[in-house]
Amino acid sequence: MGMTYIPTTLSEALHLRAEKGARPLAGGSDLMVQSKRGIGLAPEFPYDVMIITGLSELRGIRTLDDGSVEIGALATPAEIAASDIVPWHVRQAAAGMGAIALRNTATIGGNIGNASPKGDLPQPLIMLDAEVVLASIHGSRRMKLDDFILGSKKTALGDDEIIRSVIIPPHGFTYLFYRKIGMRKANAISKLSLSAAATVKDGVILDFRAASGAAGPKVIRSHEAEDIIRGHMTEELPSIMDSFLEAWDGAISPHAMPLYRRNTTRRMLSYFLSAIHEGAAEGIISEEAE
Ligand SMILES: Cc1cc2nc3c(=O)[nH]c(=O)nc-3n(C[C@H](O)[C@H](O)[C@H](O)COP(=O)(O)OP(=O)(O)OC[C@H]3O[C@@H](n4cnc5c(N)ncnc54)[C@H](O)[C@@H]3O)c2cc1C
């Protein structure tokens, strides 16, 4: 059985990470479940762990000078959902995570660190080009979240590193779409989710992005497919829709997504783009029926 450490500063935690290889334990909602031994028994870990919830350096949600939003690794889904500076898609995903107790204990760092394809936060974050800030005793580095998550349960986290925060660059989207399809509304591990966004000015689609979650080993985003839409007039959408959907389909590995999920994703994407083509009012595009 491994040791449990409780560092009180980030510096102490980074030394424990580098010298003992201690694994961070934040909300514990993934780690405790993986290590449970039975009712009434405390979980046991075969490796050293450090409880990082006391690290104030990993807390808080703030706006940076360039307009980016930095979310500390210990921010909970409840804090994220309640923040008015966090981009809308990320608030939606946070608000739909688990039940209320989980939303108050889970953390964004744990959701990313766990790298489950069913995790709710990486999907909108990857659509928004978010970066992770990784700290070690040697300093810190930033990398795109899309590059950090390598696959199901695999990340590029170094043996001496801790996720310190997530940084979301600013954007000026005029149309927003988010949908999570789960078993039921509360406490549902995501079955399929989609974030999409577009910036339209004077009939020109200046920016368009989409990301699909719980659909394969990691979040699916296709820059190639997005480029088919970007720069076109909204009135051209019907003529480019098929090649866009084909490119999107091509981005999904053949066995990652059963046909019904593939079709549902295609339908949501065409719903969003059709709404823009038909001149929907700017803002959130929502669809009620599945
Ligand atoms: C009943 C239930 C319902 C759930 N529902 C959902 C849901 O709807 N949506 C969803 O996305 N998830 C859900 N989950 C999964 C889980 O709650 C989330 O993934 C959560 O965000 C994990 O955060 P945590 O702080 O509890 O992680 P932990 O269990 O503390 O850690 C998870 C992993 O991340 C690593 N880690 C944690 N913090 C850091 C850090 N700062 N730096 C580096 N590595 C770190 C840990 O070492 C571990 O490998 C559910 C879980 C349960 C038990």
Q: What order do the strands of the largest sheet run in, or round the barrel if closed?
A: 4-5-10-6-7
Gross morphology = elongated
Low-confidence stretches: none
CATH C-level category of the largest domain:
Alpha Beta
Note the main sheet: 5 strands, antiparallel
**Terminus-to-terminus distance:** 47 Å
Number of helices: 11
- CATH topology-level fold name of the largest domain: Uridine Diphospho-n-acetylenolpyruvylglucosamine Reductase, domain 3
Radius of gyration: 20 Å
Class from secondary-structure proportions: alpha+beta
Helix content: 25-40%
Bound molecules: flavin-adenine dinucleotide
Question: H/E series, N to C?
Answer: EHEHEEEHHHHHEEHEEEEEEHHHE
Structure description:
With 290 residues, the chain is an alpha+beta fold. The protein has 2 domains: 4-168, Uridine Diphospho-n-acetylenolpyruvylglucosamine Reductase, domain 3; 175-284, 2-Layer Sandwich (Enolase-like, domain 1). 32% of the residues lie in helices and 23% in strands. The chain has 11 helices and 14 strands. The strands form 4 sheets. It has a 5-stranded antiparallel sheet. Strands 13-12-11-14 form a 4-stranded mixed sheet, sandwiched between helices. Strands 1-3-2 form a 3-stranded parallel sheet, with helices on one face. Strand 6 and strand 7 (139-144) form a beta hairpin. Helix 9 packs antiparallel against helix 10 (237-251) and helix 10 (237-251) packs antiparallel against helix 11. It is elongated. It starts with a strand and ends in a 6-residue tail after the last strand. The protein binds flavin-adenine dinucleotide (FAD). The site of flavin-adenine dinucleotide has 31 residues, from strand 2, helix 2, helix 6 and strand 10.
